[in-house]
Amino acid sequence: MNAIRGTHRLILDDMRWFLKLFTLITLLLVLAYVAVGLIFDVSFPAAAFGPMYGGICGFAVSGMVAIFPVAIGLGSTRTQFMKSFYLNSAGMVIGGITVLNVIYVLMHVLHASGILGVTLYQPGQLYASAYEWYSYYWIDLMVGFFMLGLSAFVTVSWIRLGFRNFFILFFTIALGLTLFITLSDLSGLIRWITETNSVLLFTLLGAIGGCLLLSTYPMMKHAPLVRKGSKD
C-alpha cells in the first residue's frame, strides 16, 4: 500500500468511526425522545443535531491532532494528508447531515400522521416554518461546513501558536470584538441580516467555513509533528 492510499485509508477509517459513533448517539437520543412522547403521550419540541455537529468538530480536531503525526510518520507528505483530510471532512459533513435529515423526515412523517407529538428543531426553521426538505438539508449542510472549518482552523492555530500565544490571541480578538459590538452602531447590519434570505445567509456561513478550512493548508504545510508547548 503506497503512502497516498495509506493516508487516505487512515483518515477514512477515522471518519467512519466518528460517523458511526455519533450516528448511534443521535439515534439513541431520538429514540429516548420518541419513548417519552409515546409513553407519556406528550408533545414537545426537542433538538437532535448536537451530537452530530459535535462529531464533525471532533473529527476535525482528531484529524489535526492525532492522525496528522501518524500519517506523516508513515511516509505521507503534508500535501497528501491535507488533500485526503479535506476529502474525508466533506464526507463526514455530508454523511452526518444526511443521517440527521433522514431522521428528521421520519420524525416529520410520524408527527404529521398524528402518531407522535414530538418535533425536532432544525436551523432551517429560521427560513420557513413549513417543512421544506431541500432548504432544510442545505442549511444543515452549511452549518456543518461552518462548524468543520471553524474547528479545524482553531485547532491548527493552537498547534502552530502554542497554548500561551493562542490564548493571548484569542483573548485579544474576543476583547476587540466586544468593544466593537459595544461601541458601534450595528443597526444597519442587523437590518440587513433580518431582511436577507436565510438560505443566502447560511450559504455565506458555509462559505466562511470552507475558507477557514482551506486556510489550514498553508498553516499545516510546514507544521511540526509535535505541537508547541504552553511555554513556547
Automatic annotation (TrEMBL):
**Name of the featured protein:** Uncharacterized protein
* Keywords, sorted A to Z: Membrane, Transmembrane, Transmembrane helix
- Record the organism: Paenibacillus amylolyticus
| Entry keyword Membrane | yes
Its domain of life?
A: Bacteria
- Residues annotated as transmembrane: 21-40, 52-74, 86-107, 136-159, 166-193, 199-220
